[in-house]
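Hi R.,

Here are the chain sequences for the assembly we discussed:
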Amino acid sequence: MIPATFDYVRAGSVDEVIGLLGEHGDDAKLLAGGHSLLPLMKLRLAQPALLVDIGRLRELSYVTEEEDVIALGALTRHHDIATSPVTLSSVPLLAHVAGQIGDLQVRHRGTIGGSICHGDPASDLAAVLLALGATFVAQGPNGRREIDAQDFFVSFFEVALRSDELLVEIRVPRPLDARWGFEKLTKRAQDWAIVGAVAVRSRSGVGVGLINLGPVPLRSSAVEAAVVAGSNAAEAAAFAAEGTEPSADFNGSVAYRQHVARVLVRRALEKAGV
Amino acid sequence: MQIDITVNGTAESHDVEARTLLVYYLRDAVGLKGTNVGCDTTSCGACTVLLNGESVKSCTVLAAQVAGEEVTTIEGLALEDGRMHPVQQAFQECHGLQCGYCTPGMVMAITSLLAENPDPTEEYIRLGLEGNLCRCTGYHNIVAAALAASQALEMRQ
Ligand SMILES: Cc1cc2nc3c(=O)[nH]c(=O)nc-3n(C[C@H](O)[C@H](O)[C@H](O)COP(=O)(O)OP(=O)(O)OC[C@H]3O[C@@H](n4cnc5c(N)ncnc54)[C@H](O)[C@@H]3O)c2cc1C
Ligand code: FES
Ligand code: FES
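And here is the predicted structure of the full complex:
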């Protein structure tokens, strides 16, 4: 399978990217690791006229520690997040999840920014960043603005970036004394989650994220509220299907996925010490 | 467009379409047919090569994306005196292949794994090979070859 033809530009700076996006609008598509976009282009499900390759913007690949925040450049690869001493010591949940995405070859190419901007409801990192209460930094012609992870996922494969903006940074509030659980149901080792759940409990509260249970990555406010009100893991997990709209396919029916969601949320909560 | 890539230590420069995938750059433009295409959908790992020493699936990388970088294929692994690389040698000794279709990708994936962790456990090898499928061997001898190779590489150092 070969993608349809396109023009290709390798961007040398963030400003150049913003200029190209302004000039070409929706005809242009950014290419980071290419591990979501290229498979779509090979299937001709995406046929952008212009690919702007941002993969070499090394200044957007970093994991740094600020006082209350861990900052990750949008082009940081899954493999780097899985092995960075900063994530391993300060947000081990992020390292753990990044280290389970796809397979090693995928993790050598895929980036955190691509995982989020693709808007795929099955993205593991998107659900984790929702549970961690992360903020996303977009940059456009008028400078930078911050978007709450909660407000970022608009609809199926659609995110809150304007057509002349790119994502530059992900900011994760340092979870204090956090315990966490991450549960992912797959049929084969390297697969995407059929259903997944993540729970984080820290001094600043509780966060629960759901993977592949609707058109967008979800944060389960119903489960979170139950935990805050004093429910144990099993009681709170009973609310896990609330607000979800999974689709049915050969991996399972809607009812099956909602059942699995309750099971995985309970396990994740238990691991998080709820 | 003109794309320059260092392949197995040799500077290559070829005029190909922007949409050319790395695996076809290697097979058709450079003429190195050792890298196989299995699934063509980023699943099987048959097309695995090293990009700056790290394993990647060359069916899901544009040649343009890696212009200016270093790619190593199965043809580039043998030692300077022509002897097989320890990972290749271990495949022969442990009977790590049957039909051989997955083998170039397996060997490259294992080479990358051992570069990242020279003293691996069996579990590390098995998890690290998640992205490489083999229809023949049942994997046991591939894992045995990877472990044998790690010892051979250690002795060489
Ligand atoms: C075999 C396989 C298995 C996988 N398994 C999993 C899995 O288990 N879990 C999981 O979560 N993911 C999985 N993935 C997806 C993988 O994590 C992708 O790498 C990731 O979703 C996209 O990152 P990328 O850098 O490759 O993005 P690209 O494919 O380059 O881009 C994806 C989209 O995001 C846009 N984009 C990228 N970067 C930016 C930016 N900085 N600003 C604005 N827009 C941007 C692009 O324009 C494009 O629309 C798998 C992929 C494969 C091929
Ligand atoms: S051919 Fe590339 S992963 Fe199967
Ligand atoms: S030896 Fe035949 S596919 Fe692996």
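Residues 146 and 152 of chain B are 10 Å apart (CA to CA). Residues A 29-37, 39, 74, 101-102, 106, 109-111, 113-115, 117-118, 123-125, 161, 166-167, 190, 192; B 42-43 surround flavin-adenine dinucleotide (ligand 1) (CB under 6 Å).

Let me know if anything looks off.

Best,
T.
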